[in-house]
Amino acid sequence: MKAKPATVGLYAAILVAGVAAPLVFPHYTLQLAVLWIMILFALTWDILGGQMGYNSLGNILFFGAGMYICALTQIGLYYDIAEYTASSGEIKVDFTMGQYMLGLGLGTVAAGIGSVLLALFFGRIVFGLRGPYFAIGTLGVALAAGELMGTWDYVGGGGGISLPVYPGDPNDRSLLYYFLCFVAAIATFAFLKWLYSTRFGLAVNAIRDDEEKAEAMGIHTERYKTVAWGISAFFLGIVGAVFGNMVGFIEPLEVAFPTVTFGIFMVLMVLLGGKGTLWGPVIGATLFHVIKEVTWTYLLGWQWITLGALIIINVIFFQQGIMGWMREKWPERFGIVVDRRATISASEEAQ
After folding, report:
1. Cα diameter, the chain
2. Alpha carbon of 152 to those of 61, 81, 251, 280: distances in Å?
3. Are residues 268 and 309 in contact, defined by beta-carbon separation less than 8 angstroms?
4. What domains lie within the chain, and their CATH numbers?
5. Please, which pLDDT band fits residue 307 given cuts at 50, 70 and 90?
6. C-alpha torsion 20→26→27→28, nearest 10
7. What are the distances in angstroms from CA 313 to CA 3, 53, 309, 323?
8. Torsion angle of alpha carbons 135, 33, 11, 277, nearest 10°?
9. What pLDDT is recorded for position 333?
10. Are 236 and 278 within 8 A, CB to CB?
11. Averaged over 200-213, what is the pLDDT?
12. What's the rounded Cα separation, in Å, for the pair 67 and 257?
C-alpha cells in the first residue's frame, strides 16, 4: 500500500524539523532531547495500556534498569566497579574518545537486551494479574527496584553513580545525546507503525476487547502480552542508557526510577493524546512537554497544580483524548465511513 503524498510530506517535515531543531535552538538542546524521550515514553506505554488494555504503572522499571546496565557496562570495561562506586573516590577516571564511545555503544545494547530479560522474568509473575491488580503489581515492582538499588552499595547505593565524562567538546556532547534521543524515538515510532499493521496488532487489540474470547479463538494471550512488554522494555532500556549518560549522574529514586514523575507522565501523555492510536501518544507527549516546560519556567511553584488540573480536565471532560475527539469530529478524515442517512433515521425513530 503506497503512502499518500500528504503522509510522506508530514514524515519528511518531522525528520527535517528534528534534525534542524538543535541547530536552530542550540540553547534548548536538552529540552528538545527530553521531548523525544517523552514521545518514546508515551509510545511504549501505549503498547500495553492502549493497544492491549493492560495499564502498567511499572514501565519505569526498564528505564532505570537500562541506566544501570549501561553504566556498569561502561565502567566495567575499564575499571573495577566496586572501586569506582566506592565512597572514597580514590580512582581517577579518564576515558579516551574511543573508550567512551565503545563503552556507550556496548552499554546501550546491553541495556536493551537486559531490559527485555527483566520483562520476560517479571512478565511470568505480573501477567497472572488483571485490571487494577496488574497496575498495582507493576507499580510495586518499580518501587521495589528503586529501593533495592538504593541499598546496593556495589552500584553506588543511595549516593548514586557518576557516569564517565564525555572527553570532547560540551556542545558536541549535547548534539550527540540529542540525536541519540531523536533516533530512538523515530525508530520506536517506525517499528510500532509496522508492528500494528501485522497480525500482532490484531491480536493485542483482541486481548483488549475480550481476553477470554481471544483465548477461545486460539490466540496465545500470555505470549503476546510478554512480547508486548518485552518490546516496551527494549526501547525504554535503550533510552534509559542514553538519558543516564546525558544527565551524567544516576540516582536510584529521582533519576533512574522516578515513578511519581516520569512513571505517571507516561500514562498522562497517552490519555491526553488518545489511547490505542499511533499518533495519539506523539501528540499527547508533545503537548504535555510544552505545558510542563512553560509551567516549570514561568509558573514555578504552581507547576504541579497546573499538571493536576490538566489531569482532572483530561479524565473528566476529555476521556477519549485528542485523537479520539478528532475521530468523532471528522471520522471521514480517518477512513471511517459514516452513513449519515442511517444515523438521521435512527435519531428520528428514537424521537
Report:
1. 83
2. 16, 12, 12, 39
3. no
4. 5-319 (1.10.3470)
5. confident
6. 30
7. 36, 22, 6, 16
8. 10
9. 67
10. no
11. 93
12. 10
The identity of residue 24, as a single letter, is V
pLDDT digit string (tens) for 91-107? 777 888 999 999 999 99
The pLDDT-based confidence of 172 (bands split at 50, 70, 90) is: very high
Strand locations in the chain (E): 161-162, 249-250
Query: Could you identify the residue written with the cell 504503572?
Result: 57
pTM for the whole thing? Answer: 0.91
Closest CA to 284 of 230, 322, 255: 322
C-alpha cell at 165: 565524562
Measured CA to CA, the distance from residue 290 to residue 295 in angstroms comes to 9
- How far apart are the C-alpha atoms of 21 and 243, rounded to whole Å? 19
- From 46, 8, 59, select the one nearest 285 (Cα to Cα): 46
Using CA atoms, how far apart are residues 25 and 39, in angstroms rounded to an integer? 19
Collapsing DSSP states into helix, strand and coil, what is residue 25? coil
φ and ψ of 249, to 5 deg: -155, 140
Residue 110 sits at φ, ψ, to 5 deg, of -65, -35
Q: Where are the alpha helices (DSSP H) in 152-220?
A: 170-196, 199-209, 211-216
CB atoms within 10 A of CB 187: 13
How many Cα atoms within 13 Å fall on the side-chain side of residue 192?
32
Do residues 106 and 155 make contact, with C-beta atoms less than 8 angstroms apart? no
**CA gap 106, 192 in Å, rounded:** 24
Indicate whether 311 pLDDT > 60: yes
Q: Beta strand pairing status for 249-250 and 161-162?
A: antiparallel
